[in-house]
Amino acid sequence: MAQILRTDGTKLAAEPKNGVQFTLGEAQAIVGGYVEALRTVDGFVLILNEEGLLLGLAHNQTASQLVGGYIVGDVLLCRDSEFP
Q1: Could you give the number of structural domains in the chain?
Q2: Three-state secondary structure along the chain?
Q3: Which of 67, 76, 83, 82 lies closest to 33, judged by CA?
Q4: Which domain holds residue 11?
Q5: pTM (2 decimals)?
Q6: What does the alpha-carbon distance between residue 63 and residue 69 come to, in Å, rounded to a whole number?
Q7: pLDDT in tens, 45-83
Q8: In this model, does residue 43 exceed pLDDT 90?
Q9: Which of these, 14, 18, 30, 41, is most buried using a 10 Å CB contact count?
Q10: Does the pLDDT value for residue 4 go beyond 90?
Q11: HSE-up of residue 4 (Cα within 13 Å, Cβ side)
């Protein structure tokens, strides 16, 4: 099951409206803008705001730990099959 990882450390369960895959619009609504997808080593996809640094979004420590980089903003963590 997919999760929204918020910058404040909270995690929310997420499910695509169609029950299969998140649409681009759904992903953009979650991250608040244009999306960028990063694959994690364990087969998941981290969807984040492509312009997060430019927009000055808050650091997301949980997401940063997953990919070993500096991630900002709320992100969507889902299976590869849940995002086209």
Answers
A1: 1
A2: CEEEECCCCCEEEECCCCCCCCCHHHHHHHHCCCEEEEECCCCEEEEEECCHHHHCCCECHHHHHHHCCCCECCEEEEEHHHCC
A3: 76
A4: 2-82
A5: 0.93
A6: 8
A7: 999 999 999 999 999 999 999 898 999 999 999 998 999
A8: no
A9: 30
A10: yes
A11: 19
The label of the residue with tokens 């997953």 reads 66
pLDDT band at 1 (very low <50, low <70, confident <90, very high): confident
Q: Which residue has the tokens 């609504």?
A: 29
* Cα–Cα distances in angstroms (integers) from residue 48 to residues 7, 14, 21, 33, in the given order: 12, 15, 16, 9
Q: For residue 4, report the phi and psi dihedrals to the nearest 5 degrees.
A: -100, 125
Integer angstrom CA distances of residue 84 from 20, 61, 65, 81: 10, 26, 24, 7
Tokens 């087969």 label which residue? 43
